[in-house]
Design a protein that fits this description.
The structure holds 3 protein chains of 3 kinds. By secondary structure, chain A is mainly α. Chain A is 78% helix and 0% strand. Chain A has helices at 9-33, 49-54, 58-90, 94-109, 112-141, 152-177, 181-188, 193-222, 225-230, 238-245, 252-289. In chain B, helix 2 links the parallel strand 1 and strand 2. In chain B, helix 6 packs parallel to helix 14 (364-377) and helix 10 packs across helix 11. Chain B is globular. Chain C has helices at 2-6, 10-31, 47-50, 56-84, 89-100, 107-118, 123-131, 133-153, 155-163, 186-210, 214-222, 227-238, 240-255, 259-264, 272-281, 287-320, and strands at residues 33-35, 42-44. The radius of gyration of chain C is 26 Å and the shape is globular. Chain C contains 16 helices and 2 strands. Classes of the chains: A mainly alpha, B alpha/beta, C mainly alpha. Chains in contact: A-B, A-C, B-C. The B-C interface holds B 11, 14-15, 83, 85-86, 88-89, 92, 181, 187-190, 223, 228-232, 235, 238-239, 242-244, 364-365, 367-368, 370-371, 374-379 and C 18, 37, 54-55, 57-58, 112, 115-116, 119-122, 181, 183-184, 262-263, 266-270, 274-275, 278-286.
Amino acid sequence: MRLGSRPGLLGRSFTALVFLFLYLPIFILIIFSFNEGNSSSVWQGFSLHWYSELFQDRLIMSGVYTTLLVSLLATVIATAAGTFAAIGFYNMRRRWREPLMAVNNIPMVNADIVTGVSLCLFFVAAFGAWNGFVSWMETTYRLTAPRLALGFGTLLIAHICFNIPYVILSIMPKLRQMDKNLIDAAQDLGCTWMQAFRKVVVPEIKPGIINGMLIAFTMSIDDFVISYFTAGAKTSTLAMVIYGMTKKRVSPKINAISTLLFVVVLLLLVIVNVRQARQDKAAAKNGHAG
Amino acid sequence: MKKITALTLACILAMGLFLSGCAMDDPDNAGTSGSPDSSNSSGTSEGKRELNVCSWGEYIDLSLIDEFEEATGIKVNYQTTDSNETMYNLLKTTGGGFDVIVPSDYMISQLIEEGMLAEINYDNIPNFSLIDDRFKNLSYDPENKYTVPYTWGTLGIIYNTERVTEPVTSWDIMFDPAHAGDVLMIRNSRDAFGIALMSLGYSVNTTDEAQIREAYQKVVDANEAGVYQAFVMDEIFQNMEGGNAAVATYYAGDYLTMLESNESLAYAVPEEGSNWFVDAMCILKDAQNVSEAEEWINFLCSTEASLRNMDYIWYASPNTEALEMYPEWYEEQYGEPLDMELYEIMAAPQEVLDRCEAYLVLPAETRTFYNDLWTQLGT
Amino acid sequence: MKNRLAWFSAPYVLWMALFTVIPVIMVVVYAFTAVDLTTGAVHPTLDNFAQMGTYAVVFVRSFELALIATFICLLIGYPVSYLMAKEGPGFQRIAMVLIMLPMWVNFLLRTYAWMTILSNNGPLNQLFQALGIIDLGNLVNGGLNGLCAWLNGGAVELLNSLLGTDFALSTARPTDMTYFKMLYTQGAVVLGMVYNYLPFMILPIYSVIIKMDNSLLEAARDLGAGSSRVFRKVILPLSLPGVLSGVTMVFVPSVSTFAISKMLGGGTKLLLGDLIELQFLGGAYNPYLGSAISLVMMVIVVICMYVMNRFGEGEEQAVML
């Protein structure tokens, strides 16, 4: 669906300028991934050696793996949970909704370090109690259960925690925009409330859901402080590896891996778009033929 | 009270269910659930040896980790952080999880004071004998019971010879309005006030509040006179390499890295003296894998590992043989002789070290005082 | 009906109780305690809040910069969302990801890149130099200096003699600049905030505008509304929920941001995020004071948001009527 007529030259150049603003630093850092030297400000000639060194750096490679895994999982879970929560909030009485939305906003307000430290303290206390309980079970009943420690699980929980508020905030405006009578109408026409949810509400708020997903993924990928306090001794994300380098300097290998990831996503986007465009064309043709 | 306990228990149970469901990346609880006999599930009883290290990023030739793993079969989990303070906070909040850490001198003495480090059994680290005596029994660990030095170096002034023509010999240049807007101050209270203390002729470890306040005032005055372009940490690389600033204070090893991208940079350890630092490997008191930790430390003390680390990170090693052999080794590796002047910047000669002073941990009140002053500077 | 769907949020409310409320309780407990430096004993106290006055400057600065950044984001983000919604289907399919994509590159690298761009010898200054903009700046400054000197000699002197004041216009604008100082200014901090949070403003607004009922717009036009009137009376009010979300998602994290100001602002003018971080990761480990600052910040932000949402919802209902 498109809103009115296409924008004019002035509008287009404004949009182009904003995109230039967003992508300018990305171009700069891509350029320096091909730098012969180790600087991110002085050009010393073209070289690909950072790319070859990158694949030998196990810290970066495992960091990338953990980051992708935790970000994707957290995004999927947070988006699903956030969608339900948003619909729930929307259908609440205002008296209940307002305080709950305020609580929902708290993880966004809180400084990262505070969220990180308090989650960490909470996990440590809870695990301490649990592990004590397991020891007690072992000595008295010869029963055992897994002991818990900070690790991927806690990292994932933390990421879900700070993602959900953003998902809810992205979906809320779409819900407000939705015609309130739609759900009632669907039910009058014989939908169960679950069907009403699936067939009426979700398609209506889909852009909001996609939006929330994108924002959640972005927050996850970029987070350093909270991950740092919840990941334990054996797990580290790419962002943690990068910040760890700042005691000395961030290696251009990081520019290289960022460039690779960036290009892969860009390629995926182009492929999706081209395929979709072809399908649209084919559909249009069939439509004409029929 | 009962309600709270019940609630807490319910929360913990729910968490336990959730966590055991989402396959934690923790070998400790793999395969132990349900079998009542495996009561000794803590630690690494399953024959798989591992080691958890916490160090700085880009602070080791990574191929050394692979070699160590191949040689010993110990899996190394290598975690990095960005500062001593971050690491300290992590240790305090998580209550551990690491075996070996590599803090700097002043942080070591703080950790010893708070009883967080384990005494090391040096019999299991034969390569400790290769460490130069100059780096043993240092003030942060006077009887050398807790530490094995990893790297050392000096703090000094890095300047651009195109913009500062006369050679730099004094800290005064860090406060000189003649270079207004061209000086980069270090963004950390200990070093920034330390520089001012040294230029005033005081000890960097002073606890005299009047002296510290004087140093603070010196930094404030210079800041108000517009001497500082900015307070920076790792951004210093970009700024000095790109010629955006003329004078900065940073570590010798990092100067050598900058030199690769900008040849007109020079380095000086001022006449008043300076700070020299040691980063040393320590074993935490609650370490789970002590014998693995000892093997790791011993491995990194070897001459071969020291040489390669020195070459990779440009920070000097405390290994006597490595220090002697490095110029020769360098020539073999790269087919060109090592510039001895640069080598002396990395591994400062004794007469330079003699006028330098290591940071010691300050009493809690003084640390708070530093922090308060630093905050004032930024408000 | 209404109540049934409300139960959808029950699991999340439980989750919040566990992972949001418990940490907040911890913050509150920490904020009201302190440790005795000599004995190491922890005791309840209000001291942490007594110190808050000294940090008032930081509070004001943080909220001010966050507000400016939010306003600029809205100023740029709204038209962009609107213009993007008018583009063809091919662009729209990937528009959202395209807006977000730069943010998937690590924050530190993006900031380093901005530092390179804005630095004194950086590409932007070189471009200005080549285009003669810097010389123009010198010329303008020289002209202004001259003008001010002339005014100082005439009108200002007259005013001073009338009012008995000692007022003078500055004549010390630099005329020998070889670069514009862009890095390490408050402007650079705002730029950093705008850059990092602009997508969070564009996305919600765009997602609302894109699904706007075209028939509504046509109806408005058919009823004789001009395009500016259609925008003011139909599009703008209908997109308000998106704007509210966007403003929240930009303003709230901007207030507590820490690395941006440190890296782009030169590290001398602390923001709240830096101040809190300093308590946890500075030379002195003082999570108690850090928690107190954080608590005060939280309360202020939550009140701001509450007021804004209230106002927003009222507005929305007025539109519906």
